[in-house]
């Protein structure tokens, strides 16, 4: 740490205290006796996500939150639950202490949480994440949910499993195929 006044790199610490997110140190230059302040902060280790196509991308919490918000849009969920889920997942990822993590692991963490939270949010997320190509695959996923007795807080209030507009599309498609 060079002195900002004379450039000398030797200084002594004359005061040190904890501040919100780090340590503030008051220093005195050993050459010109000028005083200056330094801050020390913890640098979070960077985490890389390995995507399906093997590309690496730095973990981006905003992206995670965007996906969660989209899935939970207009669902009757407690305020702040999406941010909390984002925080929890981020903390869990960093706690694993790995430099790289497959995107599928993050996807599964989200799925697990949404499954216990809200069926529709879960299905919405799953339909993007699992890349459902046809309605049969989606129906199969819904069936496993309905038959899963460990997560049936109130099945009637959760039905229908698809938002109205999606049901509309299905019906339209169905009608078209009948022609
Ligand atoms: Zn100096």
Describe it for me?
By secondary structure, this protein is an alpha+beta fold. The chain has seven helices and six strands; from the N terminus they run βββββααβααααα. It has helices at residues 61-72, 81-95, 103-117, 119-129, 135-147, 155-158, 164-178, and strands at 11-19, 22-29, 35-41, 48-50, 56-58, 100-102. Strand 4 (48-50) and strand 5 form a beta hairpin. Helix 1 packs antiparallel against helix 2, helix 1 (61-72) crosses helix 4 and helix 3 (103-117) runs antiparallel to helix 4. The N and C termini lie far apart (78 Å). Residues 165-179 have low confidence and may be disordered. Bound molecules: zinc ion. The site of zinc ion (ZN) has 8 residues, from loops.
Major sheet description? 3 strands, antiparallel
Strand order of the largest sheet: 1-2-3
Structural class, by secondary structure, is: alpha+beta
Instruction: Give the beta-strand count.
Output: 6
Shape: elongated
**Rg on CA atoms, Å:** 26 Å
Residue windows where pLDDT falls under 50 for at least 5 positions:
165-179
Ligand set:
zinc ion
């Amino acid at each position: 740490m060079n002195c900002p006044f004379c450039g000398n790199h030797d200084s002594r610490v004359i005061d040190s205290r904890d501040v919100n997110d780090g340590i503030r140190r008051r220093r005195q230059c050993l050459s010109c006796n000028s005083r200056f302040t330094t801050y020390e902060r913890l640098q979070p280790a960077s985490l890389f996500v390995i995507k399906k196509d093997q590309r690496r991308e730095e973990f981006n919490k905003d992206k995670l939150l965007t996906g969660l918000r989209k899935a939970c849009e207009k669902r009757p969920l407690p305020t702040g639950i999406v941010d909390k889920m984002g925080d929890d997942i981020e903390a869990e990822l960093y706690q694993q202490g790995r430099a790289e993590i497959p995107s599928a692991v993050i996807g599964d963490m989200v799925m697990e949480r949404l499954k216990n939270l809200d069926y529709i949010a879960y299905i919405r997320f799953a339909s993007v994440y699992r890349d459902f190509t046809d309605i049969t695959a989606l129906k199969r996923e819904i069936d496993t949910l309905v038959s899963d007795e460990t997560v049936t807080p109130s099945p009637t209030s959760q039905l229908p499993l698809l938002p109205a507009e999606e049901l509309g599309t299905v019906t339209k498609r169905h009608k078209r195929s009948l022609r």
